Amino acid sequence: MPEVIDIGPATLEKPRPDLIVVRFRPGSLADGNNLLISVAARKEHCGGRPHIAVLIAPEDSDFAPSILGRNQYLGTGAETFTKALAVVCPNPTVRNIIELYFAMHLVSFPVQYFSNEAAAMEWAHPQCVALQQG
């Protein structure tokens, strides 16, 4: 069982060296600050090594419209250690906003969207294998 690390608006788990799972707390807000906290925590806990990230938003999550206004990843270095991103969001409205965000602010790694964790993990594990194979 991976250690669960409190990072404020979320918890972070590292079930394998190349996979980091960030679980946002109930009532959390998809905003620039929470995204930056999650990126910084992933960087810290992976030692800057490349990994696959799975971000999980709860059903009752909401978003700040300001998140769309700028590329929240710019200047974080996230593209150097994020090799793929799975976004789990059972709330279809918030998922649509997150999809719009990534359509407006392109990143160099693949991003996939899921309504449940099982489907996201099913997608993430082959990504981990491909990362290991280089």
What can you tell me about this protein's structure?
The chain is α/β, with parallel strands linked by helices. The protein has one domain: Transcription Regulator spoIIAA, CATH 3.30.750.24. It has helices spanning 32-46, 78-81, 92-104, 117-133; strands at 4-6, 10-16, 19-24, 29-30, 51-56, 62-63, 82-88, 111-114. The strands form 2 sheets. A 6-stranded mixed beta sheet has the order 1-2-3-5-7-8, with helices on both faces. It has a two-stranded parallel sheet with strand order 4-6.
Q: Features of this protein?
A:
4 helices, alpha/beta, 134 residues, Transcription Regulator spoIIAA, 8 strands, six-stranded mixed β-sheet, two-stranded parallel ribbon
What secondary-structure arrangement, pairings included, does this model have?
Elements: E1 4-6, E2 10-16, E3 19-24, E4 29-30, H1 32-46, E5 51-56, E6 62-63, H2 78-81, E7 82-88, H3 92-104, E8 111-114, H4 117-133
Parallel strand pairs: 3-5, 4-6, 5-7, 7-8
Antiparallel strand pairs: 1-2, 2-3
